[in-house]
Amino acid sequence: MNRKCYRFFGGLISAQERWLDRMAAGGYRLIRTEKLLYEFEPCEKGKYRYRVEFVGQKSRTNAADYARFLEDCGYRVYFKNINLNWNVGKLVLRPWAEPGGRVAANRSTFGRELLIVEKECDGRPFEMHTTFEDKINYCKQLRGPWLYLFLVSVSLGIVLRSWGWAVLAAISATGLLIYQAELSKLRKQAKTKEW
Amino acid sequence: MRDNVKGGALTEVTFYILLSPYAPKHGYAVMQFIEERTGGRLRLGAGTLYGALNALEEKGWIAPCGSGGRKKEYAITELGKQAAERELKRLEELTRTAKEIVGGTL
């Protein structure tokens, strides 16, 4: 029997990956996603593995092209929202995104910031990014929104003298520091090695 | 893509990706080609491969060709072949020097 779960992971991308992997290990394969919903069908235990890719910086066309490429490689992909936005007709400005994805409207990658990628286990490692250069680029893309949120909340916290913004600044600083540390580690490794 | 535009070194990954579409291939076939040719030593993640294929396409070294039906296939261009030939010469020189210095161990 199919199983429906309601979860919200927000920016915790690796937590979402681990949860999907645990579901697959327990014999449940993802078949549908909605804003908070993940629907699973029974499958052979441990048959599938999951990776969650952040594509919020891409334009709608580029994100769709990437998803198609992954499907051609034999993966199943699902788009997923990273935030909870209930508004209709909202525009989001993303200064950290690539040109073409900077104003995210309902018809762009708005609400489709994540790609859940499913692979059938074949005993080989399942990594989306394998060279240090590419890992660094991807890590920068993940850091972008945190950096932007940090700068905005610090500025507003100072200007408005508001504790709410200060709390948000502290939260975003945590995300920022995690990716910054990862980036430094990757850059160090990339000095002498390509992958 | 960390390669020197002035004609310098390509990375190993870039060179392998460039060598793959001498016979037209789609993305997944490029991945398999590299894995087979390196005996599993070099396995590319799909995200890395996607970025590298786009970068090579932008440089004009590979181009999409229309024989693959739904899947997008790539073929190497004349410009790409010239780059591959330059890289081969550079690697031959490097191997020669390494053999001389490391001695008979190779």
What's the SSE pattern of chain B? HEHHEEH
Task: Quote the beta fraction of chain B.
Answer: 5-15%
What structural class should be given to the helix and strand makeup of chain A? alpha+beta
CATH homolog superfamily of chain B: Winged helix-like DNA-binding domain superfamily/Winged helix DNA-binding domain
Major sheet of chain A: 3 strands, antiparallel
Note the total helix count of chain B: 4
- Spans of chain A of at least 5 consecutive residues whose pLDDT stays below 50 are none
Which consecutive residue ranges of chain B, at least 5 long each, have pLDDT under 50? none
Main interface pair?
A: A-B, 22 and 22 residues
Q: What is the H/E order of chain A?
A: EHEEEHEEEEHH
| Total strands of chain A | 8
Describe the biggest sheet of chain B? 3 strands, antiparallel
- What helical percentage do the residues of chain B reach? 40-55%
Radius of gyration of chain B: 15 Å
- Strand arrangement across the biggest beta sheet of chain B: 1-3-2
Structural class of chain B: mainly alpha
Mean pLDDT of chain A equals: 88
Radius of gyration of chain A: 18 Å
DSSP strand content of chain A: 15-25%
| CATH uppermost class of chain B | Mainly Alpha
